[in-house]
Amino acid sequence: MLIQLNPTGVLDLLSQLEVDLLEQSSASERYKLFRNCVLAVLNVGSHTDESSDIYDKYKDFDIRLVSRERGIKIELENPPETAFVDGEIITGIHEHIFSVIRDILFICQKYEKDLKEQKAITHMVFDMLRNAGALRVNSEPSMVVCWGGHSINEVEYKYTKQVGYELGLRGLNICTGCGPGAMKGPMKGATIGHAKQRNTNNRYLGLTEPSIIAAEPPNPIVNELVILPDIEKRLEAFIRTAHAIIIFPGGAGTAEELLYLLGILLHPDNTKQCLPVILTGPKESEAYFKELCEFVEMTLGKEALDKFEVIIDNPELVGQKLRSAMANVRDYRKSEGDAYYFNWTLKIDNDFQQPFAPTHENMASLDLHLDQPKQLLAANLRRAFSGIVAGNVKDEGVKAIKQNGPYILSGEPALMENMDTLLQAFVDQGRMKLPGSKYIPCYKIKA
């Protein structure tokens, strides 16, 4: 099966030099990454969080860029049949494929060298979002970032949809990690709220990165897709585009996101920041939030608890609070002379920006002790949870665990005991893998 596709979006008008650069990129070492990301996009709606399941099933899949005088076409060889209806590729998948080309081949070649300076990294995040059309200059604050697990139960999933519905009724837009579970639910609920209000400018922004996209392919509702180079730039993109953040129940990845956010909000330069944060779920998830809050208080202190609000089993209240908070966000940005579409004034230290490679050596050497600045502790805890995510679902991490055994995490006994308790709760509640999958921990905790 051989399919040719015409470009869409920013790639529908290219110079010959740009076409040449794209062809060179597709023949480079980046090709495997590019191919795997396209394959993930073609598997929208897949029910697996094992990247290898997709890669092994479609070993004969290939993609080529075909140069034309007026631009490029792409050629798909043996793509998944589920991406087509009556022989025609689904429009959303078609668009997402060219998002992959735009972000993996087109933009990333501008940033071949590792970036070290804070301003340079933030500029790259801004440049990628701008090039993707994700920054709307003449729009009022309305973007709600929703975090939460890909593996949540049916009660929690329905709750995320209900919250999304309340947000949609109030004209708020949704940004998530674009996968299943708590990333899909708010978008699905918001579509109904937007439809009832006859809102035709609805936005469902998905931010992902190459190492996670196959385990969490974009859900079918995402109508804007941006693929950031790594988890650190993805997280920065989330909080710089957010006007508010909702955190639903989740596992290690959700803990990573919360720790990243709190570590940044605890910076003295961010004291005045106006960024509403709400943790919410159904009454059945109340114990989950209690455990999470206890871990935050034990590690980062009561000051960290003041950076967010917990609302249990009240989607309407969540919608009301965030709708009214948009005026405060607007007033704050206006008073600071900051953009509504990108939070430039947010201070993000280098510890939260530099990519962390979750090798066994790096995981074992993490400084997991309470006697250090709260921001640095948050950064190290974030790295620990990021490594666990890699060992759970990211292809390279899963392979490393199979080859070398589980990661070893060690540190101050009280801290390690609390981390072990939290992680075991995630395991017991089925938050580490999709339902039906047997979970074998990719880590060992040592005091």
From TrEMBL:
Residues 4-111 form the Pyrimidine/purine nucleotide 5'-monophosphate nucleosidase N-terminal domain. It catalyses: AMP + H2O = D-ribose 5-phosphate + adenine. One of its GO terms (molecular function) is AMP nucleosidase activity. Transmembrane segments: none annotated. Pfam families: DUF4478 (PF14793), Lysine_decarbox (PF03641), PpnN_C (PF11892). It is an enzyme of class 3 (hydrolase). The keyword GTP-binding does not apply. GO terms for cellular component: cytosol. Keywords: Glycosidase, Hydrolase. Its EC number is 3.2.2.4. The keyword Hydrolase applies. InterPro entries: LOG_fam (IPR031100), LOG_family_nucleotidases (IPR052341), PpnN (IPR049788), PpnN-like_sf (IPR037153), PpnN_C (IPR021826), PpnN_N (IPR027820). Residues 326-445 form the Pyrimidine/purine nucleotide 5'-monophosphate nucleosidase C-terminal domain. PANTHER family: CYTOKININ RIBOSIDE 5'-MONOPHOSPHATE PHOSPHORIBOHYDROLASE, PYRIMIDINE_PURINE NUCLEOTIDE 5'-MONOPHOSPHATE NUCLEOSIDASE. This is AMP nucleosidase. The gene is ppnN.
